[in-house]
UniProtKB/TrEMBL annotation:
<keyword id="KW-0326">Glycosidase</keyword>
<feature type="signal peptide">
    <location>
        <begin position="1"/>
        <end position="17"/>
    </location>
</feature>
<feature type="site" description="Important for catalytic activity, responsible for pKa modulation of the active site Glu and correct orientation of both the proton donor and substrate">
    <location>
        <position position="92"/>
    </location>
</feature>
<dbReference type="InterPro" id="IPR041542">
    <property type="entry name" value="GH43_C2"/>
</dbReference>
<dbReference type="InterPro" id="IPR051795">
    <property type="entry name" value="Glycosyl_Hydrlase_43"/>
</dbReference>
<dbReference type="GO" id="GO:0005975">
    <property type="term" value="P:carbohydrate metabolic process"/>
</dbReference>
<dbReference type="InterPro" id="IPR023296">
    <property type="entry name" value="Glyco_hydro_beta-prop_sf"/>
</dbReference>
<dbReference type="GO" id="GO:0004553">
    <property type="term" value="F:hydrolase activity, hydrolyzing O-glycosyl compounds"/>
</dbReference>
<feature type="domain" description="Beta-xylosidase C-terminal Concanavalin A-like">
    <location>
        <begin position="303"/>
        <end position="459"/>
    </location>
</feature>
<dbReference type="Pfam" id="PF17851">
    <property type="entry name" value="GH43_C2"/>
</dbReference>
<keyword id="KW-0732">Signal</keyword>
<comment type="similarity">
    <text>Belongs to the glycosyl hydrolase 43 family.</text>
</comment>
<dbReference type="Pfam" id="PF04616">
    <property type="entry name" value="Glyco_hydro_43"/>
</dbReference>
<keyword id="KW-0378">Hydrolase</keyword>
<dbReference type="InterPro" id="IPR013320">
    <property type="entry name" value="ConA-like_dom_sf"/>
</dbReference>
<dbReference type="InterPro" id="IPR006710">
    <property type="entry name" value="Glyco_hydro_43"/>
</dbReference>
<protein>
    <submittedName>
        <fullName>Glycoside hydrolase family 43 protein</fullName>
    </submittedName>
</protein>
Length: 498
């Protein structure tokens, strides 16, 4: 079996920055990233004063598949159609409407006409442009303006060499003429805190002013500590008639065209990306719309996790440089090695955990309920820390907390939910453990997990019965956003994009 990770075109609400523009005014100041936390490969459009952003999600599939969903009512999940699937030969299919035809452009850059009703792609695929010579010409978008088709792509790979290139033609099929001043956007070869700038999309506001959105990584040129991975940044664009677009370089503090006033009165019921979480789960509670899963859940109800089979992890993005995340856990494991806890999770090969685990004891015949701090990663890991759960904690749920006072380290803390002064700091771990590694396309999530650490019948994916973990009080609150090597701002300082 050739199971691979692919980049599917899929609807995924990043969050929206929305509302009507009012009058011509002075330029605005705002802060990047506008969608903090893992929001890679962003695209954006504005329709009737509302901006819609969509990001990449990573799905497991056989080969490359594009999926198209239709709806007459964007804001209701049930109103969306089942997918129409199509099978482009390369990744990053972009959809472009022109004179009654629909095209799909993909990595390298290849163009095919697409029948949106049944997913049929025209053959043979047409080669439009190979970029300017860098690796991975991908993430194409086509714009039609002033008698030209502009073809904008990402190039250089999604690391430090990432850049945006552009070419144009008077015919969609080419030949395309590359801009002589490419790249039109990049932070490659700089000391900027925002790195990997690339893979973007251009769109207009209600005034007709142009903007762009792209991915970036808050890593500095060292590119060693960036637990939030690839985030979405906004930049102003000047695009005069008949000329090439001018893209403003991506920084933490930005100035550009006047932004719309904050407007939280929007259709739809999902939370805003920058808002805190405050959830109190009961049996059967729905899992909030901003949560993500590792593997597909069987039922989207309250976090009652059972281990290997079915849902074993659910979390939300780390969206702030510093934050506090805590969850109350009620857990009475029945068999040795049953474990549940909270985690900073990048992938199953890169995570930082504190959990309750039933461990076989060397000194007594009874397994002992313990608190365990442990990390899994590709760099030197701190030593696990195991302590027996204090006897006075036994009567109620235990609060597990992940907190930090800077962007480089996490502290993992436990306390009885009924007496938060009785805190124990079980361990401190470097955020380098959840930067890049096996998760260079994603960003860290903060969430809850359950596992039996491989126990259970041989060859079975089932854990020993019993000992389900119940996660109840869930809180996440951001404190600061780092916007340069030396500056941080309060997390609430970017109201337009909360
Ligand atoms: C906010 O957006 C909604 C939906 O687009 C719109 O109906 C409403 O008028 C907007 N409010 C303001 C103050 O702009
Ligand atoms: C935008 O507004 C026009 C005119 O009112 C309307 O016909 C159209 O359906 C609107 N589009 C969306 C996506 O709401
Ligand atoms: C897809 O639809 C088009 C237009 O109706 C039709 O010509 C084509 O045969 C269809 N392809 C398949 C595979 O059904
Ligand atoms: C891009 O490169 C491929 C492989 O070398 C070549 O077949 C194709 O003609 C090139 N496309 C263009 C537009 O130059
Ligand atoms: C674009 O080029 C193709 C291939 O040369 C040609 O068939 C087509 O007529 C051209 N379209 C226009 C609008 O010039
Ligand atoms: C406003 O922002 C735009 C886009 O960045 C820029 O071209 C323009 O010069 C700015 N205007 C002023 C007065 O700063
Ligand atoms: C029990 O002893 C083994 C071997 O000395 C050791 O590796 C293990 O960590 C011990 N277990 C506990 C729970 O202390
Ligand atoms: C960052 O936080 C960790 C954990 O609290 C601490 O050990 C470390 O000294 C801090 N680093 C700086 C530069 O303050
Ligand atoms: C709460 O914990 C503190 C610190 O361990 C302890 O001194 C205090 O007695 C505890 N309070 C209760 C009500 O158990």
């Amino acid at each position: 079996m050739n199971l691979s990770i692919t980049f599917s075109l899929a609807l995924f609400w990043c969050s929206e920055a929305l509302s009507l523009f009012q009058g011509v005014g002075t330029n605005s100041t705002y802060y990047n990233p506008v969608l903090p936390g893992w929001h890679s490969d962003p695209s954006c459009i504005q329709v009737n004063g509302t901006f819609y952003a969509i990001c990449e999600y990573l799905g497991m599939s056989y080969g490359i598949v594009g999926v198209l969903f239709k709806t007459q009512d964007l804001f209701h999940d049930e109103a969306w159609s089942d997918p129409v699937r199509f099978y482009p030969t390369k990744i990053d299919p972009d959809i472009f409407w022109d004179d009654g035809k629909v095209y799909s452009a993909t990595e390298t850059v290849i163009l095919q006409e697409l029948d949106v009703n049944n997913g049929t792609l025209s053959q043979p695929p047409l080669s439009l442009w190979n970029g300017t010579g860098g690796v991975w010409p991908e993430g194409p978008h086509i714009y039609k303006k002033d008698g030209y088709y502009y073809l904008m792509i990402a190039e250089g790979g999604t690391g430090l060499d990432h850049a945006i290139m552009i070419a144009r033609s008077t015919n969609i099929t080419g030949p395309y003429e590359a801009y002589t001043h490419n790249p039109i956007l990049s932070n490659r070869g700089t000391n900027e805190y925002f790195q990997t700038v690339g893979h973007g999309d251009l769109f207009q506001d209600v005034q007709g002013n142009w903007w762009g959105i792209c991915l970036s990584t808050r890593s500095g040129p060292e590119w060693e500590i960036y637990p939030m991975g690839r985030e979405a940044s906004l930049f102003p664009v000047t695009w005069n008639e008949g000329e090439w677009p001018i893209l403003e370089p991506v920084r933490g503090k930005m100035s550009g065209w006047q932004l719309p006033p904050e407007n939280r009165t929007l259709p739809g019921d999902g939370p805003f990306n920058g808002d805190p979480d405050s959830y109190d789960f009961n049996a059967g509670s729905a899992i909030p719309a901003n949560f993500m899963y590792w593997r597909v859940p069987r039922a989207a109800t309250s976090p009652e996790l059972t281990g290997q089979q079915g849902l074993a992890f659910v979390g939300r993005r780390q969206t702030d440089t510093t934050f506090t995340f805590s969850v109350d856990l009620a857990f009475s494991p029945q068999a040795a090695n049953q474990e549940a806890g909270v985690t900073v999770f990048l992938t199953q090969l890169n995570h930082i955990d504190v959990g309750l685990v039933l461990l076989s004891s060397n000194t007594s015949s009874k397994p002992q309920l313990s608190l365990r701090f442990r990390t899994i990663g590709t760099i030197t890991a701190p030593t696990p820390n195991i302590i027996p759960v204090p006897g006075t904690w036994a009567n109620g749920p235990i609060r597990l907390q992940i907190q930090n006072t800077n962007g480089t380290h996490y502290n993992l803390v436990a306390m009885p939910a009924s007496n938060t002064t009785a805190q124990i700091n079980l361990g401190t771990a470097s955020a380098a453990l959840v930067s890049g590694g096996s998760g260079s396309f994603v960003g860290s999530l903060l969430g809850v997990y359950a596992t039996c650490n491989g126990e259970g019948a041989a060859g079975s994916l089932d854990c020993p019965a019993g000992g389900n973990a119940y996660f109840q009080r869930w809180r996440y609150s951001g404190s600061t956003q780092q916007i340069s090597a030396t500056e941080s701002i309060p997390s609430i300082a970017n109201p337009e994009f909360m």
